[in-house]
Amino acid sequence: MKILFINTIGADVWGGVESWMMRIGLFLRNRGHKIYFAGRKNGKFFKIVMQKDFKILPLVGKWDISPGTILKIARHIDEKSIDLVVVNTNRDLRLGGIAKMISRRKPVIINRRGLPAFRKKLRHKISSKFADFFLVPSEDLKKSLLNFGWFSADKIKVIPNFVNVEKIRQLSQEKCDIQMETDAPIIGAVANLVGQKALHILIEEHPILSDREIKCRTVIVGDGPLKKSLLQAARKLDVMEKIFFPGFFKNPFPLVRKFYILVLPSIFEPFGQVLIEAAALGIPSVASDVGGIPEVVVNGETGILVPPENPVALADAIENLIKDRTLRDEMSAKAMERAKLFDVSIVAPQVEEFFKYAINYASKN
What we know:
Blueprint: E1 2-7, H1 16-30, E2 34-40, H2 44-51, E3 55-59, H3 67-79, E4 84-87, H4 90-102, E5 108-112, H5 122-128, E6 133-136, H6 139-146, E7 156-158, H7 165-171, E8 186-190, H8 200-211, E9 217-221, H9 227-236, E10 243-247, H10 253-256, E11 261-264, H11 273-280, E12 285-288, E13 303-306, H12 311-323, H13 325-339, H14 344-364
Parallel strand pairs: 1-2, 1-4, 2-3, 4-5, 5-6, 6-7, 8-9, 8-11, 9-10, 11-12, 12-13
Helix pairs in contact: 3-4, 8-12, 11-13
């Protein structure tokens, strides 16, 4: 197969879909397929993918239905004989979809959705028609798309995100640059510091645990626009000495390995890949019972699910796991086993087969 990935996400953005595109691109290239990328010139996505020695088409200028950009993509499709185009955002869907219309090659268009990201607007309904198929990481996200009423269920394929379990374990053995001198259990989060992750709930549960005389330290790994407000919340609740913000790490796993519990208090979450990454290291999770999270965490077995935006419920679950060493050890073992179901060796071939199916389907219709 000859596959083109298009991603014109903001210049400084690197998120779940961007990581997925790069990792599936590496897997498919290793399987002998020809992989190309198109992205915002000098953007973070462009730079990171370029470091992996992929052939890249730099895109510049106005993005939404830009004639110059569309022509450039269409020429690239024809010159490289592209069979399949994988796009990310609605903008990418419009760019790739219109480029397909004017190209000679007419590749299959697959929209990889990490979020619903549609609204009940005419332009979004029109945009959705450019995709031949949609690829989503959870049944919950599939339901969200079907609720719009524009999508056919047989055109939405659910394949979960994947990780390289063995690589995560190897990376966790590297030297940890953060030294934390504490005997208290470490409760950790690894996330972009944005509203979706609701990390203020992780701060608000600290006074509750303190009142119950439960000792713990919290580490919030990551960066983002809400860092300042989270720091202010910690100061206001007088828990700054118990919460540590080490920032973003390219390899957070040496620190994650020290966690007793991984916490993800999101208000919405299509999947929650960090939960699998923690599970690969035997770290049980406490997470919100929202979105695709219940498809990742088996409640009561590999972690505990709690209602969103409920610091008392979050504190109850954390206290339970801190106090019950036997339960935590059992969840740790089961989490490690569950992580194997999301390993690259299991999931990535499913993506490859789906891509082949999509191309074959299009050739017959």
